Amino acid sequence: MGHRPTFVSFGCFVVSSVALRLGRLIHPFSECSVRSVGPLPASPSFPISHFPRFPDFPPRLPLASTPHFPCYAKSLSFVSPASPMPTRPRLLPFLLSSFLLLLCPATAASAAQPNILWLTSEDHGPEMGCYGDTLARTPNIDALAAKGMLFRHVWSIHPVCAPARTAIATGLYSQSSGGLHMRSMVPTPADQKLYPEYLRAAGYYTTNNSKEDYNVPKTAQTWHDSSGQAHWKNRTAGQPFFAVFNSTKSHESQLRTRPHQAVTDPAKVRVPAYHPDTPEVRQDWAQYYDKVSAADADAGARLRELEAAGLADDTIVFYYGDHGSGMPRSKRWPSNSGLHVPLVVYFPPKFRHLAPKEYKAGGASDRLVSFVDLAPTVLSLAGVRPPAHLQGHAFAGEFQVAGPAFLHGARGRMDERQDLVRSVTDGRFVYLRNYFPHVSQAQRVDFQFQTPTTRIWRAAFDAGRTTDAQSIFWRTPKAPEELYDLRADRDEVVNLAAAPAHRATLEKLRAAHRAHLESIRDVAFLPEGELHTRAPGVPPYTLARDPAKYPLARIVDAADLASRLDPAAVPQLRNLISDTDSAVRYWAALGFLMRGAPAVAGDLPLLRRALADASPHVRIVAAEALGRYGPAADLAPALEVLRTHMNPAKTDVFVAMAALSAIEALGEKAKPLHAEVGTISGDAGSPHDRYNSYIPRLVANITGVDPAAAPAAAAKRPNKKKAAAK
Q: Residues 134, 123: contact at Cβ < 8 Å?
């Protein structure tokens, strides 16, 4: 662990030094070693680095065991010169040094560690007064920003809660850890911990109240308490705390609760260019503003509670949202509208030296901040050197570093809907790379369709009443590349990717995207099932760092070639579909599916052979391509492949999800399978119950029968209520 610049009074240092030296003279065969494992209280005197330090040894005793040694450290150890193991301390030097140390006027070491309070809210972007939104009513966070500082450019990385919160907890991009897909579960390397464990080791009392939703496992050491009762008040007296309080008031589900006592006038909201301007859409946006106000009120209550306890001067405060608003084309979509979040920080005067270098009261920072920056930052504030595997940049504390040149976003599977999108911004331009252009931005996710705006919008599109900007969300294929200028086009509806004037910007962001996915070893270019089967028992993070098991460049090159939709690439796809790596073959098969009838008709023998590929994911893509675009004679063998893969009890949940998605895409062509699809249970073949809701949803999409209406089927699915919460 690194050490913050620490100061003790000159008299305290001398007294302590004399005590320890006397102890060694009296008992030359014992040695009292003091190690500073945490911050020392500031004192307007001399830096301890100006004096000779005692030898550093691993800490032997916890802070709670040494309440009377406040000048130096959180731990004391007594070691024999002949052995690194602790020995019984000699009584006389111990008592002498203890007596003299009591004369030290410094306060306890824990007092020099700031308390840290995170106030978080769900599903809202920077629609707040402090960010210049005149319609917003957010007095509490506005006041916090007035005495603290806000960051203008903050991305949540992922536009939905589970992967976004996973990125915060791990300090890794979720496409790097393997935890990208919505409500999934992947193992992590044994030597990596979630960030609260590092804080606990530094003496902090850690609480979370209360949402977790991680796509990676936690341990008993992650939080002291993570529940609806978790609170900093329950810590040991004098112990520094790290506490998270999450408000659910602005969650997507709250935008459509009726009846609603309206405060915001729907006539005054700004309807973005991608939404149709209807009364229903205006009501949803107005209710969103009301719910953000409610989240602000929750934050205000926590801040007043802190003040009443007399802890405001000892506590660093962060406020942020977990991703963009819960409105469609914000939540779940990795453009600026889905990733841009507020971040307001406050540093009390005694901890101003830990603040960002650009910090000033009422100020605003143009630094680019990502959710992977939160873990290294909070560790830096606690005096803990961020572990080398963390992928973010600390923006405050002893170990703060320069910020990144770009922010990166990612979208994977959203519930049962497969997609693969990556995004980049330099703060002005936003670049998106769509690797699944054959599916729309709006793929039907039931939870999203419960919002009136989504239904009204879809009906308008189906009726031909949407503008070009309003149609992008529903249209297929998606453009393989998108580029938007936020200064001129805040709603991201004018795609500049083909504009000659912006060619240099496109190439810059394209190169940044490729360099990033290579640097973090983006493992989500594998079919999701292969995260678990390519190297059984090996965490995806570890798998991705083995070039023999995960040839990233070859796989990404295949994905790039397949998804650009260039007809001239078909000869290369023919070669790739025979590659030795199953993921390369998978992308080659997708390349034919994405290009539709012309590409499929030109390579029927090749796709027929792919029906017997060693990989089930290749077989399923080939079956969908032949079923949708091949001649009638190919439908029966394609359906047979899908039938043999659609039941998770006979395959696994990932193969079954892929097969059922293909069956749904075939529509009426797959009707001979519908009766058998209706018999499928969703709780088989799953490595974790977080996946259990996806098969039933696909079954319902295909058969039109809601599995929740069948009590027997519902009883078989554990945690159904939990899985339904988004």
A: no
Cα separation, 186 vs 406, whole angstroms: 27
Is residue 379, in this structure, part of any structural domain at all?
yes
Active site residues: 161
By CB atoms closer than 10 A (0-12, 13-18, 19+), residue 477 is middle
Question: pLDDT tens digits for 533-563?
Answer: 999 999 999 999 999 999 999 999 999 999 9
Mean pLDDT of 625-641: 98
pTM over 0.90: no
With 0-12 / 13-18 / 19 or more C-beta atoms within 10 angstroms meaning exposed / middle / buried, residue 247 is buried
Q: What is the CATH number of the domain that holds 601?
A: 1.25.10
Q: Which domain holds residue 23?
A: 7-109
pLDDT of residue 12: 41
Q: How far apart are CA 602 and CA 434, in angstroms?
A: 25
d(CA 481, CA 52): 60
Give dist(CA 467, CA 335) in Å, integer.
20
685 φ, ψ (degrees, to nearest 5): 70, 20
- Residues 228 and 230: their CA atoms lie apart, in Å, by 6
Q: Supply the Cα-derived Rg of the chain in whole angstroms.
A: 29
Count of the separate structural domains present in the chain: 4
Rounded to whole angstroms, the Cα distance separating 294 from 300 reads: 10
Would you say residue 414 lies in a domain? Answer: no
Helix or strand run (H / E) with residue 197: helix 195-201
| 326 and 177 part of one domain | yes
Pairs from 85-93 (Cβ < 8 Å, separation ≥ 24): 86/60, 87/30, 89/30, 89/32, 90/23, 90/26, 90/27, 90/30, 92/23, 92/26, 92/27, 93/19, 93/20, 93/22, 93/23, 93/24, 93/26, 93/27, 93/30, 93/32
Query: What count of other Cβ atoms lies within 10 Å of the Cβ of residue 518?
Result: 12
Phi/psi at 682 (5° precision): -90, 0
Q: Is 450 helix (H, G, I), strand (E, B) or coil?
A: coil
Task: Note whether 101 and 127 are same-domain residues.
Answer: no
Q: What are the tens digits of pLDDT across the range 668-725?
A: 999 999 999 999 987 788 899 999 999 999 999 999 987 665 544 443 444 433 444 4
What pLDDT sits at residue 682? 79
Q: Write down the mean pLDDT value for the chain.
A: 87
Q: DSSP labels for 475-536?
A: -SSPPSEEEEETTT-TT--S--TT-GGGHHHHHHHHHHHHHHHHHTT--TTS-TTHHHHSST
Q: What 3-state DSSP class applies to 128?
A: coil
Backbone angles phi, psi at 379, to 5 degrees: -65, -40
Q: Three-state SS for 205?
A: strand
- Let me know how long the chain is: 726
Query: pLDDT at position 720, please?
Result: 39
- How many angstroms separate the CA atoms of 663 and 657, rounded? 10
Structure tokens at 136: 């917003």
According to DSSP, the β-strands at 205-209 and 421-425 are unpaired
Classify residue 595: in a domain, yes or no.
yes
Amino acid making up residue 466: T
What pLDDT is recorded for position 84?
A: 37
